[in-house]
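I have been asked to look over a protein record a colleague put together. Alongside the sequence sits a line of tokens, each denoting a local backbone shape. I have pasted the whole thing underneath without changing anything:
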Amino acid sequence: MIAESLSKRFGDFTAVDQLSLRIGRGEVMGFIGPNGAGKSTTIRMLCGLIPPSGGRATVAGFDVGRESQRVREHIGYMSQKFSLYSDLTVGENLRFFAGIYRVPTKELGPRMRYAVSMAGLEGQQDTLVGTLAGGWKQRLALGCAILHRPPVLFLDEPTSGVEPEARRRFWDLIHDLAAEGVTTLVSTHYMDEAEYCNRIALIDRGRLVAIGSPGELRERGLGGALYELACRPLGAAVEALQGQSGVLEAAIFGDRMHVVADPAMLGLPALVERLRAGGIEVDAAGPAPPSLEDVFVHLVARGRDRRITS
């Protein structure tokens, strides 16, 4: 899958701004960004559902602008909104989508059995989909999306609202498909899910901010030293540091505060002293390794005036 300077404009608003990326066969690419960053618009263009305003892209060897129908025949798509029919059974949904995807009659039985097995729904072909728990529904939706054995799979926040254990099992299925050579682009706002991807593309305001493996992105660092502090009250502590000399970023992480500081201007002892001088109680403080969430926040905040292609 290749996108080169892909853009989408709606009137005066630019939703996707010259985005370029390449995704290899069998690769799981995470698509990460805040709401309104342009993730879903990009996926819809790559699926051939809406035409790009500029640039070009090929998916499964077909041009998304000139061969959109051929693109749609060679992809699987699953959205964050449950797309199956709740008033139909498991088997009826599978047969319906097999008809849409023109699965040959002689292959229908084996492919339905594979989808049912993958979803863990053996013996429940006659169960109404509306009665299934969220995790079962999502796995069934994934099974429906790959009935025609597409080489490329688009998943638009597929685990939104699904419990953590079900999300982990869903990702196991994604990697099983990747092992079979299926290329997958998956958007998510869960940072722990981003860790499961081979590479991650960070997008903000329609622009690609950074791209790389989770380890590569963490190694880029935060432009300063990261400190973790247990202090009270947290909100007041963040406010006390924002805009202060030597402080690059300050944010609440759970019951702690993360501070990125320029070590040449503000070391940890001076940071603690500054907080205590402002009436903040500091119970513990020390250096911390950057998490992917730390890096994400930093790169999005620092990269809004920069375009990166890969």
User: Anything to note?
Assistant: The chain is about 35% helix and 30% strand. The mean pLDDT is 91.
